[in-house]
């Protein structure tokens, strides 16, 4: 198996693709998200694009509802330029899941959830 990217790698900037841990704040959202400012934890974007194609959002500092709102901002507020949002969050407080995280991959047409990441 080949590792394709890591948050510890230096940012990749080319004429085709930007890939980086963090990005300058994006504040060009439309509709009910106008005036909102977001900065993804990690992103993949066509070079020079205003919005990432793939945005990664993670908590534990943010609640699951807040991360889901972030997903809506990225997908709906970007004129659908952001195609996929990946959310990683801690499972709700529960003795059986105290150190368990889940990951959700959101796109315009649905969600895939992976538990136990």
Outline of the structure:
With 117 residues, this protein is mainly beta.
Can you put this structure into words, describing what you see?
The protein is mainly beta and 117 residues long. The chain has a single domain (12-115), classed as tt1808, chain A (Alpha-Beta Complex). Helices cover 12% and strands 32% of the residues. It is built from one helix and seven strands. It has one helix at residues 64-77; strands at residues 12-13, 17-21, 42-46, 54-58, 84-90, 101-107, 110-115. A seven-stranded mixed sheet has the order 1-2-3-4-5-6-7, with helices on one face. It is globular and about 45 Å long. The model is unreliable at 1-10 (pLDDT under 50). Residues 1-23 are annotated as: Disordered.
Number of strands: 7
Count, helices:
1
Number of domains: 1
Q: The CATH topology is what?
A: tt1808, chain A
Highest CATH level, the class = Alpha Beta
Described by strand count, sense and barrel closure, the largest sheet is: 7 strands, mixed
- State the share of residues found in helices, binned by percent: 10-25%
Give me the secondary-structure category: mainly beta
The rounded distance between the terminal residues' Cα atoms is 18 Å
Strand order of the largest sheet: 1-2-3-4-5-6-7
* CATH superfamily grouping: tt1808, chain A
The stretches of 5 or more residues where confidence is low (pLDDT under 50) are 1-10
**Mean pLDDT score, rounded?**
74
Q: What order do the SSEs take from the amino end to the carboxyl end, as H and E?
A: EEEEHEEE
CATH architecture: Alpha-Beta Complex
Q: Rounded to an integer, what's the Rg over CA atoms?
A: 15 Å
Tell me, briefly, the overall form.
globular
Region (Disordered): 1-23
């Amino acid at each position: 198996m080949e590792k394709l990217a890591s948050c510890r790698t230096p940012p990749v900037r080319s004429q085709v693709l930007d890939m980086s841990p963090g990005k300058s704040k994006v504040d060009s959202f439309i509709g009910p998200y106008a005036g909102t400012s977001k900065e993804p934890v990690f992103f993949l974007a066509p070079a020079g694009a205003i919005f990432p194609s793939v945005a990664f959002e993670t908590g534990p500092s943010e609640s699951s509802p807040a991360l889901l709102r972030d997903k809506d901002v990225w997908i709906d507020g970007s004129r659908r330029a952001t195609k996929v949002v990946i959310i990683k969050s801690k499972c709700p407080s529960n003795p059986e899941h105290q150190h368990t995280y889940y990951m959700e991959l959101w796109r315009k047409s649905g969600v895939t959830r992976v538990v136990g990441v």
